[in-house]
Structures are given as C-alpha cells and as structure tokens.
TrEMBL record:
It is found in: Membrane. The lineage of its organism: Eukaryota, Viridiplantae, Streptophyta, Embryophyta, Tracheophyta. Keywords: Membrane, Signal, Transmembrane, Transmembrane helix. This is CMP-sialic acid transporter 1. Pfam families: Nuc_sug_transp. GO terms for cellular component: Golgi membrane.
Length: 330
C-alpha cells in the first residue's frame, strides 16, 4: 500500500500546481518567462536525483547501473515525445476553443489504458475497463459548462482537423507515460540512476527550447540565461519546486506502480483543484462538478476495490450430512 501514500501526495501537489501558478501572476500576467519554469524544474529533479544516487553509492552493495549506450539512448525518447506533444497541443488550440480542448484532453485516460494493455501486456478486468471509462466520463462531466452559457453553443463545433489533432495529442500523452513506465521497469537499475538519465535529457531539451525561442524572437530580450531568474518571486520558486517534486513522484510510481495509478492521481487532482478554487478564487460550483466528483469516486472504488466488494459471490453450498446407515448384507 506504499503506492497509495505516494499517489495521495501526488494528487495534493498536482492540485496545488494550478493554484500556485495563478497566485504567481501579477495583474493577470507573468512578470517572469514561464518557459524557464520547466527548465528549472528539470534541473531541480536532476540535482535531487544525483544527490540521492550519490547517497545510494555510499551504501553496500552498490546499486545496479547500466551504462551501455544501447540502454542510455532510449531515455531521450520521452522528451522527444513530449516535445512533439507540446507542438500538437498548440496546433489543436488553433482549431478548437479552450473548453473543447480540456474535454478532449480526457481522452488520454482511455488511450493510456489501451496503450497500457497493448505495449506493456498488462491485463485489465472488465470492471477495471468500465472504471477507466467512468473516470473519463466523470472528469468530462465536471468540465462541461452550463447550457445557459454562450460557449455551450460552440462546444464540439470545430473543424475535423481540431478533433484529429486532439486525438493525436491524447495518444502522444499516453504514449509518453507508457514508454516512461517501460523504461523504468525494463531492468533492475537504480531508480535514481534512471532519473539522472531521464532528467539530463529533459534539461537539455528544455534548454534547446529556450534557445529556439531566442532565435524566433531575434534576441530582443537577450539570451535566455540573462532572463532566467528575472521577475521570480517566492511563489514562482514554489511553482518550480512543486513541478519538480511532482515529476519525482511520478517517476517513483512508474517504477513501483503503474500508469493507471498516475492517471487516477492527476484526475483526482483536477477535481480537487476545482473544489479548492471555490474557496480561493470565488469559483461558482456547478451541478456538473458534483456529478463528476461522484462518478469519479465510483470509478476509483470500482478499479481498486477487491472483486468480492463489488459483486456478491454465491456462498459455497455445504453438503448435507449423510445420515444413512450402511448395513452389510451377506
């Protein structure tokens, strides 16, 4: 049950991520370059993982560390998938509105289950498949706005390109998670050594993105390292630490649990964020939110509960005592 505490902590940190990001704004905007936050989060994860690996190396016996290139070369792939995913996200938003995009994003719950079955060969029961679909339905229900709002009339009225890109985005997100789980479980290497490899390439790709932004902008604001910490406040650093800690927890779940647990954690975090927004940002709760929470709780119980808690199994019929008397006949 150790995964339960890690997943619960992941839910809390993920739910606070959006709140901290909102609090870091000034007059509705960011005084810092938001593109530097993922880079610093990757550097934070790399430093923590390197320190933990160093601590592990001081112990005996030494941890397993595969240094062959044919193994190391697999670790840039998740960063490449996420890079493609980010560009597909941007392209999707040019065709669909934000509400439709958020609802379509819940497709990654189902696509994660499908890729989880196809690539990792993990079998799920019929009840667990139903629970995954219910989770997608519950999160979608909580995000649907009331029909009295103007945006409701434009829901799902985008061109077909937007829906195709939305499906591709969901598949890429699921593929990145499933592939990362494959990397973490393909051998018995130390978790911290795997993290060092993963976050090294993550930091490199995020730095390359900052350089690309500089070239696109013609270096009008100077190179990225000059504005790296510009406009940072205590809240901004909390966003960085939150994002980095979330990544470390996800890698632990990928190593010792699975993608489905991560999906449930992030989905519950989304609902928790909406509930907390009611008290922090005067967000008006809707009937759809309450219905979505109920459906997601039913899905959570259906997926993780023991089968005998969901279905009443017939009691074993006891054989009637044999009262017959054997009489030997000569």
């Amino acid at each position: 049950m150790q995964w339960f505490y890690v997943a619960s902590l992941l839910t809390i940190l993920t739910s606070s991520q959006g709140i901290l990001t909102t609090l870091s704004q000034t007059n509705g905007g960011y005084e810092y370059d938001y593109a530097t936050v993922p880079f610093l989060a990757e550097v934070f994860k790399l430093i923590v993982s390197s320190f933990l690996l160093w601590r592990e190396l001081q112990t005996s016996p030494l941890p397993r560390m595969t240094t062959e290139w044919k193994s190391v070369r697999l670790f840039p792939i998740p960063s490449i998938i996420y890079l493609i995913h980010n560009n597909v996200q941007f392209a999707t938003l040019t065709y669909v509105d934000t509400s439709t995009y958020q609802i379509m994003g819940n497709l990654k719950i189902v696509t994660t289950g499908i890729l989880f079955r196809l690539f990792l060969k993990r079998k799920l029961s019929n009840l667990q498949w139903m629970a995954i679909v219910l989770l997608a339905v519950g999160t979608t229900t909580s995000q649907v706005k009331g029909c009295g709002e103007a945006s409701c009339h434009f829901l799902f009225s985008a061109p077909i390109q937007g829906y195709m890109l939305g499906i591709l985005s969901a598949c890429l997100s699921a593929l990145a998670g499933v592939y990362t789980e494959f990397l973490m479980k393909k051998n018995n290497d130390s978790l911290y050594w795997q993290n060092v490899q993963l976050y090294t390439f993550g930091a490199i790709f995020n730095m390359a993105r900052l350089l690309l932004d500089d070239f696109k902008g013609g270096f009008e604001e100077g190179p990225w390292w000059q504005r790296l910490l510009k406009g940072y406040s205590i809240t901004t650093w909390m966003v960085v630490l939150n994002l980095g800690s979330t990544g470390l927890l996800v890698s632990w779940l990928m190593k010792y649990s699975d993608n489905i647990v991560k999906v449930y954690s992030t989905s519950m975090a989304m609902l928790l964020t909406m509930v907390l927004s009611v008290f922090l940002f005067n967000f008006r709760p809707t009937l759809q939110l309450f219905l979505g929470i109920i459906i997601c709780m039913m899905s959570l119980h259906m997926y993780f509960a023991a089968p005998n808690m969901l279905v009443e199994l017939p009691l074993a019929v006891k054989a009637a005592p044999d009262d017959r008397i054997e009489v030997s006949v000569d």
